Amino acid sequence: MPGGVAVAGAETGQGTGRVTIDDVNAADLRRVRGLVERAAAQAGIAASRATNFVTAVNEIVLNAIMHARGPRSVALQYTPDGLLVEVSDHGPGLPPQVAADGARLPLPTSESGRGLWLARQFSQRLYIRNTAHGLTVRLYATRA
Ligand SMILES: Nc1ncnc2c1ncn2[C@@H]1O[C@H](COP(=O)(O)OP(=O)(O)OP(=O)(O)O)[C@@H](O)[C@H]1O
Ligand SMILES: [Mg+2]
Q: Which of 93, 110, 113, 117 has the most crowded CB, counting CB atoms within 10 A?
């Protein structure tokens, strides 16, 4: 997987730069989860919050894999109060209806539509932006 050096950097917490993993696919998901978990710990985020945040990132990366086209990238960056993860893809972006509904929890009978809701619950801030290239989602985990 590209970004191996960056992963090592994040693991050790060296440097303050942005870490980007390119061409993320389903086989990389577990490594992304591990990377985010370690980066969150390094950022001083409590374990229970970090676990939730890993789930949030997992849902957003899964969305990029399932609903968009490649290349998908995941970028991590320490912030003054925690950690930022930015997930970008080259797909069609959020459908207007989904964007208009925000991240409403679907009816219990619905088999899908919980990923965005989960990601909002399990991160401290989440911003979604349709770009010229696709969708970019920014998730923040904070210490406090
Ligand atoms: N990266 C993306 N590109 C384009 N459309 C997206 C993207 N992420 C989400 N969507 C759209 O938003 C909808 C809601 O996403 P959400 O993750 O909440 O539910 P889901 O992926 O359909 O189901 P699940 O409950 O398994 O996550 C998707 O069905 C899809 O139409
Ligand atoms: Mg989903």
A: 93
For a substitution probing ligand 1, which of 67, 104, 117 has the most ligand atoms within 8 Å of its CB?
Answer: 67
Average pLDDT estimate for 66-95: 96
Q: How far is the CA of 74 from the centre of ligand 2 (A)?
A: 16
Number of structural domains, the chain?
Answer: 1
- Residues 104-130 have pLDDT tens digits of 788 888 888 899 999 999 999 999 999
Residue nearest to atom 8 of ligand 1 (CA): 63
- DSSP symbols for 72-130: -EEEEEEETTEEEEEEE--S----HHHHHH-SPPPPTT-SS--HHHHHHHTSSEEEEEE
Question: Residue 122's domain is classified under what CATH number?
Answer: 3.30.565.10
Query: Closest ligand 1 atom, CA of 134?
Result: 3
Which residue has the CA at smallest separation from atom 11 of ligand 1?
94
